[in-house]
Design brief:
The complex is a heterodimer of chains A (194) and B (61). Chain A is an alpha/beta fold and 194 residues long. Chain A is 40% helix and 16% strand. Chain A contains 7 helices and 8 strands, in the order H-E-E-H-E-E-H-E-H-E-H-E-E-H-H. In chain A, the strands form 2 sheets. In chain A, strands 2, 4, 5, 6, 7 and 8 form a 6-stranded parallel sheet that branches. Chain A has a two-stranded parallel ribbon with strand order 1-3. Chain B has one domain. Chain B contains no helices and 4 strands. Chain B starts with 16 loop residues before the first strand and ends with a strand. Classes of the chains: A alpha/beta (194), B mainly beta (61). Chains A and B meet through helix 7 of A and strand 1, strand 3 and strand 4 of B.
Chain lengths: 194, 61
């Protein structure tokens, strides 16, 4: 890898993927963001899709929030915090993701599924994977699974189960590795044919 | 394999790395400029700047 590629910190925003009132995923997103911010060589920021100014009378690039697009363009990887609503992902998260394309190509993405039940959002993660693939993102094989989220955090949003720290560390290790490798690939490994 | 013209990063002036291609399916269909009937859409290529890391896209040549 070039010296320049090595010295730039990785930028990995955490996207809170729901706008619902009373969303428990906000606790998860704040926890994930705080843990990610502790890692050396990683810069992060929390993106709340509730704050995005997305048009719902346009499509694709015409609907985009310029600041969100700039954040994704600068990113080396993304973490999506996604609640499971009736086994699916929030429609407004899909709308937000669809406003960009070239900004995603060959970048890593990891998903933290959130559910009130015991399965930690596994069904929403599985449903989201083909979308992420079509956007040009590269999914990692570790997930964050936040089961019974109403018990995992107290009313102030403090984590009540310390095991999530270690689980998240494993998730981040894989995501950072993938982000580094893909950055090198984007910048230095040419597609066949020049 | 075909050799395509080089792209230079508009921010850094450094030659970019072409790392991906993707088909774009447009509303214009076969009437779209650059439509490739074999792929069913318009081929876009994606470049990254090895200096600043930014991605740039253009229609494939």
């Amino acid at each position: 890898m070039s010296a320049r590629t090595d010295t730039r910190p990785l930028f990995i925003p955490v996207v809170l993927g729901t706008v619902r009132q009373g969303r428990m995923s906000e606790h998860v997103a704040r926890f994930v963001h705080a843990e990610l911010a502790k890692r050396p060589g990683v810069e992060t920021e929390l993106v709340d899709i509730r704050e995005l100014k997305l048009s719902n009378t346009d499509e694709g690039g015409g609907a985009r929030d310029v600041r969100f697009t700039e954040t994704v363009a600068r990113a080396d990887a993304l973490v999506l915090v996604v609640p499971e609503y009736n086994h699916g992902y929030p429609g407004l998260l899909k709308h937000a993701l669809d406003t960009n394309l070239k900004e995603y190509i060959h970048k890593a993405v990891g998903v933290c599924g959130v559910s009130a039940g015991p399965f930690g959002g596994t069904r929403v993660i599985e449903n989201l994977l083909p979308v992420l693939r079509e956007l040009g993102l590269v999914t990692v094989f570790w997930d964050g699974n936040f089961s019974s989220v109403q018990k995992a955090f107290d009313a102030e949003g403090n984590l009540t189960d310390a095991a999530y720290v270690r689980r998240l560390d494993k998730f981040f290790r894989e995501l950072v590795w993938m982000a580094k490798v893909l950055r090198h690939g984007r910048e230095h490994v040419a597609l066949e044919g020049g | 394999m075909t050799e395509t013209s080089k792209m230079v990063c508009p921010d850094c002036g450094v030659e970019t790395n072409r790392h991906a291609e993707k088909v774009e399916y447009t509303d214009a269909g076969a009437d779209a400029e650059g439509f490739d009937p074999a792929l069913g859409g318009v081929l876009e290529e994606f470049h990254a700047c090895p200096d600043c890391g930014r991605t740039h896209a253009r229609r494939a040549e």
